[in-house]
Amino acid sequence: MSDISIRIEGRVGHITLTRSKALNALSYDMCMATEKALDAWRENDDVALIVIDAEGDKAFCAGGDIAEMYRTGIAGDFDYGRKFWRDEYRMNAKLAEYPKPIISLMQGFTMGGGVGLGGHVSHRVVCETSQISMPECGIGFVPDVGGSFLLARAPGRLGEYLGLTAARMGPGDAIYAGFADHFIPQDRWPDLIARLCETGDIAVLTNMASPAPESPMATQQDDIDGLFGGEALQDVLNLLRASDSDFAAKTLKTLMRNAPLSMAVTIEMIHRLRGPSLTIRKALEMEYRVSHRIMEHGDFLEGIRAQIIDKDRNPQWRHEHDSLPAIAVSKMLMPLGKDTLSFKEEKTMKIGFIGLGNMGGPMAANLVKAGHEVTGFDLTAPMPEGVSKADSATAAVNGVDVVITMLPNGDILRSVADQIIPAMRQGAVLCDCSTVDVDSARAVATLADAAGLGALDAPVSGGVGGAMAGTLTFMVGGGAEAFATVEPLFAIMGQKAVHCGASGAGQAAKICNNMILGVTMIATCEAFALADKLGLDRQKMFDVVSTSSGYSWTMNAYCPAPGVGPQSPADNDYKPGFASELMLKDLRLSQQAAESVDADTPMGQMAKALYEQFVENEGGKGMDFSAMLPRFENRGRD
């Protein structure tokens, strides 16, 4: 992986962030690669200790990579962010509880996710350039990745001050506040690493450490304690306003820029956590209560928009600083019930994967990355890295726990099922992720049931991009027990899995969903073409429609007009994310299903006819289904 280097050097397991141009911002894949390395080295006697460092002088890690969270969240998809946070928090706990010494070398900026990576390990090293902070309240979030654990343990009321203001800690402040342990000048780090690799002895580090620099914050401790001693945000604001010090005035100005709800929740979190019962897991579980809700009910998306996307630095927070209802804070911190953060790790499964094309290949690759053992078979497609190649479909399913198929149509699914069902072990689950007709899905489920197997029809939404990013949505039909078995795999390959009902219900949901998708894309393209001919600027149209009654996924998340809205295939010459011929296939399935149950679907029928004309007669084959827009641009009214 180009963003992170993981290797064993002498006695050291060495993890280096290599994304220096992005200030080593932490992506989901980087988190998972780190966790996988920690798991591999835990019982490896050749690895005496672990070093985590980063390339570049500007930053150890300037936070989490939140661009994908914003993109999915603004489209109404909150599960991607929740999955990212769940898995990242589990990794943070693993770092804090690791049985071997871990050394983090934190130069330059270490913020947010960087604190989660480097701030909980056993030996935290800073240098003359270190600048550590928790800036989340400025983007409508709260200090997370275990940041609340460190803030609750900081001296006096320093935790509240750091959490609310995002004040940067130099090396002396970081050690004083409990965010670091040792000071070693950065020019001595190469020698430190070399000696650690040679000896595997943590005493090398403690012997090389220099005295900590002075902490300016230590001299301000009394002022901080007095100004941040209130029980709630309003108390802190009142204390700051009542003070005539320059420090109070500057601090108040900072707080008035930040999200009121985020700051109030941060204070409440620190107060609840502070005390002898505090553990890293307790802090992470409380943080996840907020993470789970923050995109839907907080200011996170607005904060990211203002600071990073539009960069207008003018966020419109949900609440005013002096009129924040206490109930809003309580709601963010309520227990999550069945969604509570769990630190339990899923067991590794043996998986057979048949059909490794544009969709199946990335899905299988994500399962391998998560640690599962995957054996694959495909007549033409290459094996993804880490997938073992089988010589036949029956060989791929021998002895596995779950078989996943991703096939072109119902006839091929039936043929493959006839081959593999007799070869599967009793109790295994056959999960078909193809988009096929309902009758084929139910026929295969009947065969599987007769053979003592679980069966699921689980077509997907999200296209090749979703398959690669692990952000697919699964619509699942079949038994509850089979769904429970495969649900952890859905969480790896996608961001959401909905159990729609009995066998065939998943295909029914997909067919209905994609009929809506085809119809709305045509309507969206027609509207843009009409706007052009009426002289209406496309961006102005988007600004109106995307925030009013014309809102739709095809407009807001997959806009067919180049240069308007989020990035989409329209910005890449309509190279397919979801090809027109695949949309035609789904629309044909919808009309086949409608005919079988005598359902009147005139819009679906017209959409099918338009896509048939586009694909078969107008050069639409091989183009994205949103390429309907240039089609309409060039046509007049018949």
Automatic annotation (TrEMBL):
It catalyses: 3-hydroxy-2-methylpropanoate + NAD(+) = 2-methyl-3-oxopropanoate + NADH + H(+); a (3S)-3-hydroxyacyl-CoA + NAD(+) = a 3-oxoacyl-CoA + NADH + H(+). Its EC number is 1.1.1.31. Residues 12-320 form the Enoyl-CoA hydratase/isomerase domain. Residues 350-501 form the 6-phosphogluconate dehydrogenase NADP-binding domain. Residues 504-629 form the 3-hydroxyisobutyrate dehydrogenase-like NAD-binding domain. It comes from the Bacteria. It is an enzyme of class 1 (oxidoreductase). Pathway: Amino-acid degradation; L-valine degradation. Pfam families: ECH_2, NAD_binding_11, NAD_binding_2. Keywords: Branched-chain amino acid catabolism, NAD, Oxidoreductase. One of its GO terms (molecular function) is (3S)-3-hydroxyacyl-CoA dehydrogenase (NAD+) activity. GO terms for biological process: L-valine catabolic process. NCBIfam families: HIBADH, PRK05617.1. Belongs to the HIBADH-related family. This is 3-hydroxyisobutyrate dehydrogenase.
